[in-house]
Amino acid sequence: MRMQATTELGHVVVHEGEARVVWARPCGGWQFERVWPSSEERRALRRMMADGSSVLVVLPLRDVPVVALGAELGTDEDVQEIDVPVLDWLPPGARRRGLRFRASVAAQLSRTPTLLRPAVVVSPGRAAVRFAVKTSSTTSERAGFRRARRPPLRADAQRSTAATPLAARPGVTTGAAVTWSATAVVRAPAAAVVAFLLQVSELPSWNPAISSVATTDRVAQVRTPYDVRIRRIVSARLTVISTTPAGVRYHLAGRGFEETGSWSLDSDGSARTVVTHEFQHGGAVLALMNGAFDRAAAWRVARLAASLRGPGPRPDA
Predict the structure, then answer these.
(1) Beta-carbon neighbour count of residue 315 at 10 Å?
(2) For every residue of 187-225, which 3-state class applies, written as one string?
(3) Half-sphere exposure of 292 (CA within 13 A, CB side)
(4) Are 197 and 273 in contact (CB under 8 A)?
(5) Residue 194 CA: distances (Å) to CA of 115, 245, 248, 289, 309
(6) pTM to 2 decimal places
(7) What are phi and psi of 111, to 5 degrees?
């Protein structure tokens, strides 16, 4: 099975960016195969254009790195970027025209209120190759990167042993609260991850938003509130709601705001764990700062992963 970069509707629609990554599933797990187009696909596209078909190229507003697991790319790295050169398959003149159009759209949008922005802007004219720029800010572009597109692994019978790509979801508003999430593969067994997350006195060392924790406890006690300082200014109370081998749930609250979050773990007992961090904000103070948290979940899981594979004693030592 392969994910398609093009759609043929009498004419051709090419989806630029992560849709160009072609995946194959030869024996169970998904594996990176190549980046569209192949030489054969390039020739077929040229033949269609010569026969009178036009091409619409759908561009993201900004380039977002496409990431996948090293195991899916045949390397030893945890997460690695896939190189997808923008519009490299077009003739130089058409490529320059597409990049200029996208730049002009970005400049126009910078002067347009968010609520008045169209979802898509299409280039004018009747050229054989035209461009459409997706302007919506409600996609994963806001998170700063995308996971490479493939069918979801959650439905796979091998979910617990499959490698999960680094991924982030932008803030999703439900009622008065906003929820963010991110996922990463951590080089540590699940028990070590839980032990590390419960080291409440060490929290400021890897989560710089927490400046200090007023406690002599090394390990957080469930249902015990801890006084913390956020950015050295805001006072709040952090409480671990529950802890299991599969994760940790917590609550952070101060005047005018609250955060409820979880760290969910998926492991087959090996030295690698899929960690998903999700948190939800409520309150008037954080409602004014929603955009500032679009990458917070991704930063947190990245710092967690870096801390667990860094120098020094292991949390489970």
Answers:
(1) 19
(2) CCCHHHHHHHHCCHHHHHHHCCCEEEEECCCCCCCCCCE
(3) 7
(4) no
(5) 42, 7, 7, 29, 14
(6) 0.47
(7) -105, 5
Query: In this predicted structure, what is the pLDDT of residue 160?
Result: 31
Residue-by-residue DSSP string for 16-36: -SGGGEEEEEEESEEEEEEES
Can you give the pLDDT at residue 317? 30
Residue 257 zone, left/alpha/beta (φ > 0; ψ -120 to 50; rest):
beta
Six token digits for residue 175: 């009622």
Whole-number pLDDT of residue 165: 34
Q: Is 243 helix (H, G, I), strand (E, B) or coil?
A: strand
Q: Per-domain residue ranges for the chain? A: 6-141, 166-308
Question: Exposure pattern of 166-185 as b/e (b: 16+ CB <10 Å)?
Answer: bbbbbbeeeeebbbbbbbbb
- Cβ-proximal residues to 170 (8 Å cutoff; 6+ apart), any chain: 138, 139, 140, 142, 143, 180, 294
Q: So what's the pLDDT on residue 312?
A: 38
- Show the low-confidence residues of the chain (pLDDT under 50): 1-3, 137-168, 170-176, 311-317
pLDDT of 95: 94
Q: 166-308: what fold? A: Alpha-D-Glucose-1,6-Bisphosphate; Chain A, domain 4 (3.30.530)
81: Cβ contacts below 8 Å, ≥ 6 apart: 65, 66, 67
> In the prediction, which pLDDT does 157 show?
32
Distance of CA 19 to the CA centre of its chain: 15
Q: Are 150 and 18 in contact (CB under 8 A)?
A: no
CB 230, CB 209: distance < 8 Å = yes
CA-to-CA distance for 88 and 82, rounded, in angstroms?
A: 15
Task: Please name the amino acid found at residue 88.
Answer: D
State whether the Cα torsion 299-301-302-307 is positive or negative. positive
